Amino acid sequence: MLIKKMLRTAWSYKAQFISMVLMVMLGVGVFVGFNMEWTSIEHNMFAFFDQSNFADYRLVNEKGYSQEDLEKIRSIEGVRAASRFLTVNADVKDSGGDSAALAVTTDFDVSSFVVIKGGAYDPNSADGIWLSDRYAEQSGISVGDELSFVYRNTEITGKVAGLIKAAEQMICVRDKTQLMPDFATHGYAYISPVFYESALGYGYYPQINVLSELDKQDFFDRVNSALGQTTVILTKEDTPAYSQAEGEVSEGKAMGSILPALFLLIGLLTMVTTMHRITAKEKTQIGTLKALGFRDGRIIRHYTSFAFLVAVLGTALGVGMGYAIAWFIMNPDGMMGTYLDLPQWNLVFPWFCAAAAAAIVLVLTLIGFLSVRRMLAGTAADALRPYTPKKVKPMVIERTRLFHRLPFGTRWNMRDIVRNKARTAMSLVGIVGCTVLVLASFGMKDTMNAFLDMYYDNGLNYSCRIFLSETATKEERREVINRYNGDYGASVSVQMNGKTVSLDIYDITHDKIRIMDENAEKIDIGNDGAYICMRLVEKFGLHEGDTFTVSPFGTDDSYTLKVAGIFRSVSENVIITRAYADSLGIPYTVDSVYTDTEKGAVEASDAIKSVQSKQMIMDSFEVFLSIMDMMIYLLVGGALLLGIIVLYNLGTMSYTERYREMATLKVIGFRDRKIGRLLAGQNLALSVVGILIGIPLGALTLSYMLKTLASEYEMQMSVGALSYVFTVLLTVGMSFAVSLMVARKNRKIDMVEALKGQE
After folding, report:
1. What's the pTM value of the predicted model, to 2 decimals?
2. Strand, coil or helix: 99
């Protein structure tokens, strides 16, 4: 019997039932989706690292390592394997400007790759090329095709022996200035040491990759002892591929905690409010059941089962929604597929999501239990008395003349808002939540665009960057600088307070290189100090005027620098002028020239290693922005849906409770349209208050998201006026739409039946 009663109850309150199911679905779906995304990424990325024997340590020396150096490293106790390694950027011949990271490894047991199609890697191949499958797909290249690379004015021509995926190039970007991969214009390839050395006539390997279980300090000490010098040693965590993988996981964890917390909180509060109102509305029926002899336990099970049904349906649908969200974000053709190059994209359902889903079902069932239990207090006769709202004292303002001069609708809404505090509070929660998410989403887009304008449009004031060969002479470097009339620079790896950072040395005479301060204003760098990026300043607690020490790798020298200013950067680096470096005696070799000459006009020479256009960098950022746009649309859509569900649920419950009031208004001459305006006016007033609360909270949420999700880019929050306008319009529009949906119910009011009295 009570099962049928439960189904009838669900049908009687179908609007509330459906809205509660949707709220639970949204909360669970967002929680499961975002946490499945980062869990799956973590599983697939780190499985890829293990599969390819990703190096634990990397030794770096611009002068290169000999076979003798390699054997010294291999002889260290605790080293399982070691390989000389090289990665250079080369142009793809006859491709219209494409480039590729050309890699060579002397031991395939370290930092290897996975063959997707074609033949296995042959370390003795004289012409084999193992090419990125993503680049091959975009460029229409197949196994067996001939392919030529141009490096240092030398052609390296071979045949594509296989299509691959390499963990070293899991995030395949040209350099640190390119934020997003562009598989259509930049790929990667591996060739054998035999092929490489025969093509160039020599073997230059500036890196040794090592597999070792030694701890960091022990390994460092043993390597420096074996080689007899201070060496640049990068841990696995210092390498771009691995650090970016960890960054993606940490960002995913942050997203998995920010949004789901908001959705779940609002869902639980909505459930509490709605179940309380349903059981209050059912008070007379509960009393009837008691009078008929039903025990309290059976009645509790009945109403608890109602909440349980909502929880189970909502959770089940939420898990399905979570799978859809996770797959939308994390699949080869989805958002992460434009960023990561992985051999497998398996979805992983984490144990804590299962535990959370079970906990949500229990909590929601408990809410139903507690809601009905209080209605069973007392005798059956007490329960049979109709539910009557608590008597509310008049507001202070009601005792004033001003209140009675206000329009009827204003007075009616003010009383309704004050007398129904729980409903008012929940309505505000829904509106505030919607406002926060919409503003944070639009603000993220504005911040990204402002960063693009600051860094790429204003900061990079050149057409292309020329990378100079390691073997180029001083005279050859000077000739390139003079020919292309550009600014030039060098990067020196140094130790700063125990951390490896880049010391960038520039000669800026043509305004091609610009650095920006915290306010996106250009800094005129002087010759009397160093300029520190914001992250290093925060990490080491530095201020203008302070001094710090750097120690270049490969030497036992150290240099004391003075902090002259603070700038924004996309990497952890320190900038000084050439004159300041020369005054301190810091050794460096010019490695880049920045010029207005277009990439196609740069003539090939033995001194030039490769050329990178500024446009390619900007194109990669546009891809990044397009991905962000998809995320923003998801968040805005979710926010509006959240607000609609909450307000509609509360609105329909409020309408049911105020059915007699609405009927009375119709009897005394109020038309449906005027009653609708009353409801809309109340929602509008709540929307204004909710927006005023939500906008500063949205700004705080955006600030937190920037610190958590985009801290490496040192972005400063920038929210445009249009974003505020759109946030207000969308929130008010959502509230107004709900008002119209609820107001339509006025047409169905049976005035005679409604005024007969309560059941």
Report:
1. 0.73
2. strand
